[in-house]
Amino acid sequence: MNRMKRWLGNLGVLLALIAGLAAWIVLPWYGVAIVVAVLAAWLLLTQRGRQTLAVTGIGISSLPQRWGASMVIIVGIAGVVGVLVAMLAMGEGFKATLNRTGGDDSAIMLRGGSQSETNSVITREQVPLIANLAGIAKGRDGRPLVSAEASQVINMVTKADGTDANAQMRGVDQAGWELRPKIKLVEGRRFNPGMRELVVGKGAQRQYVGLEVGKQIELANQQWTIVGAFESGDSHDSELWADVETLASTYQRTSYQSVTAKLDGKDGFKQLKAAMAADPRLKLDVQTTRSYYGKQSEGLTKVIAILGTVVGTIMAIGAVFGALNTMYAAVAGRAREIATMRALGFRGLPVVIAVMLETMLLALLGGALGAAVAWLLFNGYSVSTLGSNFSQVMFQFRVSPELIWNGMKWALGIGLVGGLFPALRAARLPVTEALRAA
Question: InterPro entries, alphabetically (predicted)?
């Protein structure tokens, strides 16, 4: 009967633990702050709370004597948090780079159903029709601010390991520069129309061989001269820009891949979308450039998030077992001490929470260590990955406060699981049996 009661009790604890972890995952920062405030008030204002503080103080004071075992928890949790934060920082950096590309004041048009510029075709006859649509702003010369652009994937050699990689070559005209005010020329000059000249992004310069200003590279059996370099702080940093007509003639293009336009005021996008839908000759999709580039990051970000969560979970299971072993050993080593406190009138609840607080403190130290290592090693670290246009996009890892917060929540969740069962064992330990065993 006692065995059945204990089994049911453990099952209830397990179910409560699962429910608690589920609530912990979705708990916002202010929710955590409320929980901490309530716990602090209970510890300071109630008798059992003060008993808990006394037991916790004794446990923490003994940490130097078992520092080696405690480091198992700290290092294990630090590894989980470090790997998780680093992996998610890669997706966060890629997403941030693409989100900085474009804005709500410009729109991009692609062939209906196209997900990217690579598989889009816009005929030359359609460009004048687009330019005359409502919702498009006009420049100082009174002409619509519209840029019909060509996109070409080219083969480049990487500086990192000398392997081949895809780079994006974009053909633009003067309006293409005006539509992207973030782009700043930092070296050399712009290309001249009709000339085989290139202006390259600083990200592409850092990644590929032979893109220094003044050098020549061979593309499509033709010599192209690098005449300038630009910075934009977004995905355009990874591109090579050329005159759109020169690119089209070199690669025998008779159409464009996209058309980008400046929107006329807050209602410009609605007007443009309605005007395009009303013209049966324009079977095109239109969206703001912010929306377009934001969608390009969704797939990779989701994959990285899922992969990071899976890897983090596997590592977290190992860290939980490490914490369980360590805390069970700590409880066994302090059996006489705990039994003496129980004999003096300390109840089971203060003992449970004291052991839990000790484990959570070690988890907090491990989480902080892992987050700090991830931030020091990976924040701002530059890498590249294959984007939606089948070309490399340069971006930087971004260890944001939100990621660090999520990592700390993982750490404390591991501490919760790893400390709960040893804490219950300490509270259930019979006083006479513990004193006899000691």
Answer: ABC3_permease_C, MacB_PCD, Macrolide_Exporter_MacB
Strands 222-231, 197-201: pairing kind: parallel
Per-residue pLDDT of 4-21, as tens digits, reads 666 666 666 667 767 777
What is the C-alpha to C-alpha distance for residues 343 and 421, in angstroms, rounded to an integer?
A: 22
Q: How far is CA 111 from CA 140, 272, 282, 371, in A?
A: 29, 15, 9, 44
pTM of this structure: 0.79
Task: Check pLDDT > 90 for residue 91.
Answer: no
Instruction: State which of 223, 250, 282 marks the end of a domain.
Output: 282
CB atoms within 10 A of CB 76: 25
Residue 320 sits in the same domain as residue 417: yes
- Report how far apart the first and last C-alpha atoms of the chain are (Å, whole number): 28
- Cβ contact 146:153 at 8 Å: no
The interaxial angle of helices 67-99 and 401-428, nearest 10 deg, is: 150
CA–CA dist 90, 111 (Å, integer): 31
Total structural domains in the chain? 2
Q: Cα–Cα distances in Å, from 418 out to 40, 328, 362, 406?
A: 22, 9, 11, 18
Can you count the helices (H) and strands (E) in the chain? 15, 14
296: Cα separation from own chain's centroid:
14
Q: Are residues 148 and 267 in the same domain?
A: yes
- CB of 376 closer than 8 Å to CB of 104: no
Average pLDDT, the chain: 85
Q: Which two structure tokens, joined as six digits, stand for 381?
A: 């670290």
